[in-house]
Design brief:
By secondary structure, the protein is mainly α. The chain has helices at 36-44, 67-86, 95-105, 109-118, 122-142, 146-157, 174-183, 190-198, 218-234, 239-248, 256-264, and strands at 2-5, 19-20, 26-28, 49-52. The chain folds into 2 domains: 2-57, Molybdopterin biosynthesis moea protein, domain 2; 67-264, Hypothetical protein af1432. The protein is built from 11 helices and 4 strands, in the order βββαβαααααααααα. The strands form 2 sheets. The chain has a two-stranded antiparallel ribbon. The longest helix is centred in the middle third of the chain and has 21 residues, at 122-142.
Length: 268
C-alpha cells in the first residue's frame, strides 16, 4: 500500500482503504477500482490522501465458488417467496436488484467464511438473509448508490455473527463478540464491524453501549429496524403487530427516518 494525494490519482488505481463521510456513507470502498467519478467524489468531499493498492498487494481471485454460495442463493429464493406470500413487505419490485447485490457480495471470500459458520444455525441463517432483504429494500428506497448498497448488504448479512450456538434473541452481548470477531479479520472493513457492534443501540441512548442518535452509524440505525421486525416475527408476532411495535418506538428505540423508510416497504 502507498499513500497518494488527490492530484496523483489516476483511473484504474485500486483503493486499499474505505473512506466514509460524516454520516457513515461510503465514498470509496476498499478494493474499488478508481474512475473519474470516484476521484471527483473525493475532490468534492475534500479528501486529501488515500491509500492505493500496489501490484505486490494484489492476489487474483479464485474463481471456483464454494457450496455456501449455492446454498445461500437457494435459501434466498425461498425467503423471497415467503415474503411475497406474506403480502406485507413489498420486495417484489426490487427483487432483481436485491438479488444482484447479494450475489455480488457472495463472491467475497471473507463473507463466504462467515456465512459458512452462520449457515450451520438455520434460524440465524434465515434471519440474517431476511434482514438483508428488508434492509436492502429500505436502502433502495433511500436512494443509496450501488457501492453503499453492497456495504449495507454485507453489514446486514453478518450483523449477528457474534451469536453462539443458540440463536438467543435477547442476548445483546453478541454485538461485542461479533465486533471482536470481525476486527480479527483483516479482510472486513471497520464500517461492517461498527454496524455489528451498534445494531442493538437505541436512538434515545438506552441501548447496551448508550450510543444515541447520530453517534450510531447510519447503516446500524437502518439495520436495527429490519433486524427488529424479523425478530418480532420470529417471536410469533403477526406482521401487523410487528409493524405497530416498530412504529410505536419511533424516536425512542429507532431513528424516525428509518421507521419512515421501513413503512415505505409495506404494501398498501
Amino acid at each position: 500500500m502507498k499513500s497518494y494525494s488527490l492530484h496523483e490519482l489516476q483511473p484504474g488505481m485500486i483503493a486499499s482503504q474505505t473512506i466514509c463521510d460524516s454520516r457513515g456513507i461510503i465514498l470509496i470502498g476498499r478494493g474499488i477500482t478508481l474512475t473519474e467519478s470516484y476521484i471527483n467524489r473525493l475532490h468534492n468531499f475534500k479528501i486529501h490522501k488515500i491509500m492505493i493498492q500496489e501490484d505486490a498487494d494484489f492476489s487474483p481471485p479464485f474463481n471456483a465458488l464454494p457450496p455456501i454460495v449455492q446454498k445461500t442463493a437457494d435459501t434466498l429464493t425461498l425467503l423471497f417467496k415467503n415474503l411475497a406470500e406474506d403480502k406485507i413487505i413489498n420486495v417484489q419490485k426490487n427483487a432483481c436488484k436485491i438479488e444482484q447485490i447479494i450475489y455480488s457480495i457472495l463472491e467475497k471470500p471473507a463473507i463466504q467464511a462467515f456465512l459458512e459458520i452462520d449457515s450451520q444455525k438455520i434460524r440465524l441463517f434465515h434471519h440474517s438473509l431476511r434482514t438483508t432483504i428488508i434492509a436492502l429494500d429500505m436502502g433502495l428506497i433511500e436512494g443509496y448508490d450501488y457501492l453503499n448498497l453492497e456495504y449495507l448488504g454485507m453489514c446486514a448479512l453478518i450483523h449477528d455473527c457474534g451469536m453462539g450456538e443458540d440463536f438467543m434473541e435477547e442476548n445483546t452481548d453478541h454485538t461485542f463478540h461479533g465486533f471482536k470477531k470481525l476486527r480479527n479479520n483483516l479482510d472486513i472493513d471497520m464500517i461492517i464491524s461498527l454496524v455489528c457492534l451498534q445494531h442493538h443501540e437505541c436512538y434515545d441512548g438506552s441501548g447496551p453501549l448508550s450510543f444515541r442518535r447520530m453517534q450510531i452509524t447510519e447503516f446500524a440505525r437502518l439495520i436495527a429496524v429490519a433486524d427488529h421486525y424479523d425478530r418480532l416475527i420470529m417471536r410469533n408476532n403477526t406482521p401487523r403487530q410487528a409493524i405497530f411495535k416498530i412504529v410505536g418506538n419511533s424516536g425512542t428505540l429507532f431513528d424516525p427516518h428509518m421507521v419512515q423508510l421501513f413503512e415505505s416497504t409495506i404494501q398498501s
